[in-house]
Hints:
Elements: H1 12-22, H2 31-36, H3 38-41, E1 43-47, E2 51-56, E3 63-65, E4 68-69, H4 71-84, E5 88-92, H5 94-103, E6 108-112, E7 118-122, H6 123-128, H7 135-147, E8 150-154, H8 160-172, H9 183-191, E9 199-205, E10 208-219, E11 222-230, H10 237-248, E12 255-257, H11 265-273, E13 278-280, E14 283-287
Amino acid sequence: xxxxxxxxxxxxxxxxxxxxxxxxxxxxxxxxxxxxxxxxxxxxxxxxxxxxxxxxxxxxxxxxxxxxxxxxxxxxxxxxxxxxxxxxxxxxxxxxxxxxxxxxxxxxxxxxxxxxxxxxxxxxxxxxxxxxxxxxxxxxxxxxxxxxxxxxxxxxxxxxxxxxxxxxxxxxxxxxxxxxxxxxxxxxxxxxxxxxxxxxxxxxxxxxxxxxxxxxxxxxxxxxxxxxxxxxxxxxxxxxxxxxxxxxxxxxxxxxxxxxxxxxxxxxxxxxxxxxxxxxxxxxxxxx
Length: 288
């Protein structure tokens, strides 16, 4: 069995450099993502100068994210796993599937993993909410703005305790995502906002903080949203939060990665209603 290391902030530069050279622009393999989810998913890492991969203990000792690195380093790692174990690889992009089929023909069963596929949103659609499918939501926002005063504040200008409180109120409320296991992940986002280069906004309604949204930059034109929480139920608030978040982004940002739905039906429906313009399809490969 291969020895793995704790996912620490010391690895950020190394992992990020490998991701930028060899990654497929998905969220799952970004250092920020694996750091945020390390506790909830039981993640650890194997990392060298030209490859890294993540072990997911909750799925067994031979369960890995598909490695990111040079072609030779990936082939060597997979060969080693096949010699020692019956590995399973998760978070495989279409490019990873092609690599596995070309380098290891007939050695793996490959399955679609829709619960892990990532939703890609258009910044323009999120800002403008065009067309009839968003008409009710635009109406809710307009009514909300007539009835209440709002202020949008940079997340870095707000005490972390305020963001904690919004997240805690969301976690304590009854909502359609009760099975979403993200409490520790949210704590990591808030605690390490500076270390992970999280940018975003906090909404104040009638002088009180009520919602937060933020993320990190994956590539020159894409950000990944890692936190979206509201502390109260109010029709239009979530759509207005996303709208304001999109408006706050750098002019170079065109796309927003809204991550996977984890197979949670309510979460899937909510993301589909946002009208994604693309998906990064994910697959699982299991050694035969």
